Amino acid sequence: MKSAAKITILDVANASGVSFGTVSRVINNDIHVKPETRQRVLDAMRRLGFVANRQAQSLAGGKTNLIGLLVPDLGTGYIGEIIRGIDAELGLMGLDLITYTTHRTASKEANYVANLARGMVDGLLLVLPRHPADYIETLTQRGFPFVLIDHQGTGENCPAVGATNWQGAYTATEYLIKLGHQRIGFITGWMDLGCAQDRLKGYRSALRTYHIPEAPDLVYEGTFSQPDGYAGASALLDLPNPPTAIFASNDVMAMGVMDAVRNRGLRIPDDISVVGFDNIAQSAMVYPPLTTVQQPLEQMGRVATQMLLGILKDPEKEAGRIELPTELIVRGSTAPPKDRAG
Amino acid sequence: MKSAAKITILDVANASGVSFGTVSRVINNDIHVKPETRQRVLDAMRRLGFVANRQAQSLAGGKTNLIGLLVPDLGTGYIGEIIRGIDAELGLMGLDLITYTTHRTASKEANYVANLARGMVDGLLLVLPRHPADYIETLTQRGFPFVLIDHQGTGENCPAVGATNWQGAYTATEYLIKLGHQRIGFITGWMDLGCAQDRLKGYRSALRTYHIPEAPDLVYEGTFSQPDGYAGASALLDLPNPPTAIFASNDVMAMGVMDAVRNRGLRIPDDISVVGFDNIAQSAMVYPPLTTVQQPLEQMGRVATQMLLGILKDPEKEAGRIELPTELIVRGSTAPPKDRAG
DNA sequence: GTGAAAGCGCTAACAG
DNA sequence: CTGTTAGCGCTTTCAC
Question: Does residue B65 lie within 7 Å of nucleic acid chain D, judged by its CB?
Fold first, then answer.
């Protein structure tokens, strides 16, 4: 007997006494096959354990039924949530997802994009791309379908879904101000990412609205990772006139902030209020539970996928940037500042 | 000008004045090409923006240079760590990784395996498979290379890497016993997974070693998810004679336990000690930091990948199960029981 | 309805 | 060293 790995439509054709063209029709649910014949082929396929070779299908057919997803990293709840949304939408359409991790390496990113766009997949979903400029032009001009997720293009108008980062940061800062905080520390994310820039802008706008002077030393530049939160908080608390609240540009950094605050024997929220951004699952689990700005991550995945499917169906369709709303989630890590409360 | 998406080796051949066979040699770093010719081809490739079509390469060449990874889920730090290890090893060999998420659906799992094993990838890495029995036999008999990660086969002897789950659970339980705990609650994981079974067995063995009677009502069956930790802890604390320590089969459930404990106004570790398993990044970040059993997740990814590469190179090579050591990490969530300490 | 034939873009012998 | 020639397994015309 032939190895199961090598069963081709030709074997199925022989086994069911039809030409291999007919087998192909059965595979592709072509209507022009007599039900009886179809059944015979189906039986043979099952009996032989036939599985179509995708490489060959795509090479011949020109499409792969595969969507490529490029993510900087996994293991942060952040991406997992987005993927959940993508998977859900894709599953509905019978498309499969293949995920690539760039580990924040711009060269890998561009390389993957080149490969994927070259026959591996039908469309691309790019989460938090680092240097999209490197390849977006190429993608666009060759008409390859793609959607950016959580990227604030630097001018380019391309299909993208994000969240209202500016608004979220503004609202959170405003909330701290209304609580009575005047000195609010801010820890940024990767400043080459639009979302990080927007959060900083939102923070600044809120300060301006409430006529609070911006102190440059209250802004610490981080990279969205936990140690940055720790280092940032340490630096801020070392200031001659330290802040009474710290707003980190994501939850992971906020965890680092909490750690640093506690390690100095200060209490949250009594001595220092802490606010994060994202509302990842852990933010409700830490102690005290973290006040944060929620991003609708799963929904962002869903919407991005829908956009991509739309472009796939009608390549002419113009798709711009969609922004989903953020929401302030107040939990236990924030309170009025001590000097005012006491 | 031809669209960049359609540049084939034929175009490159024409542009550089050689046959397309030579272009293929250049692509594959064949030694039998005059340096001068090679350079000319390389130049043409760059000029035309040529990228080889992977589908065609695999169809013709019989290999894809792609490794498939099947995971139940993403977004738990657990998998992210493993992937980091896999990526590192694969990167060294110039292989790419494509990740599939099964969302714990057994049918999806079997389906993906069938597809992947059929030309999509050269080898398969399966993390925490749910129903490997469904396809392992097929995979084995057709000689398709694969390695299971963190799966305790139910009898089958196939390539796998895991951790010393029994030992880890034994050590942690022993530690609690030596602290003075006599009533130790245990929350299991998915009991159809070997690792979950082993952890339960390790817990039981430790109790037996120290002649502590096993109380069946102290064992709560969970599914590795946070709500289970919450529910399990709630059930255990409702017991007429509640435990003084709770050992959850993973960190995520331990977070749920901590939550439940706190919500009842009890203090950790003063009133209740809590222990987890895995040592995910967050376990050091929660308050109090969690005592847990560390699994060498990244290393598991590395070792599994090395095994797979070994099998890929020499299919005859027999590979069995490898177990990597676990280690107890003592942090702030454990202390002697109150009645004994006080 | 179904068979036959022409590729999809590339690798891998085989000649020279 | 380089050109030539078969396919890889499948989709898609085009006939009948």
Answer: no
What is the residue-wise DSSP string for B295-321?
--HHHHHHHHHHHHHHHHH-TT----E
Taking the C1' atom of every nucleotide in all shown strands and the CA of B60, the nearest one is D8
Reported as type and span, the H/E element at residue A66 is strand A66-71
Asked whether the bond before B288 is cis by omega within 30 degrees of 0, the reply is yes
Query: In the Cβ-directed half-sphere of B279, how many Cα atoms lie within 13 Å?
Result: 19
Domain B66-163+297-325 in CATH 3.40.50.280: no
Lookup: nucleotide whose C1' is closest to B16 CA: D2
Closest to B134 measured CA to CA, from B112, B110, B160, B117 = B110
Q: What is the pLDDT of chain A when averaged over all its residues?
A: 89
Task: State both tokens at B159.
Answer: 């390539």
Q: What b-and-e string marks burial along B196-233, b requiring 16 or more CB atoms within 10 Å of the CB? A: bbbbbebbbbbbeeeebeeeeebbbebbbbbebbbbbb
pLDDT in tens, A184-212: 999 999 998 889 999 999 999 999 999 99
CATH 3.40.50.2300 domain span(s) along chain A: 66-163+297-325, 165-295
Pairing type for strands B327-329 and B291-294 reads: antiparallel
Element (H, E) at B60: helix B54-61
Kindly tell me the burial class for residue A183, based on how many C-beta atoms sit within 10 Å of its own C-beta (0-12, 13-18, 19 or more): middle
Q: Does residue A285 approach strand D to less than 7 Å at its CB?
A: no
Q: Could you tell me which CATH class the domain A165-295 is placed in? A: alpha beta
At A96-140, the pLDDT tens digits run: 888 888 877 877 788 788 878 777 889 999 998 888 888 888 788
3-state secondary structure of B271: coil
Residue written as token pair 């059993």: B293
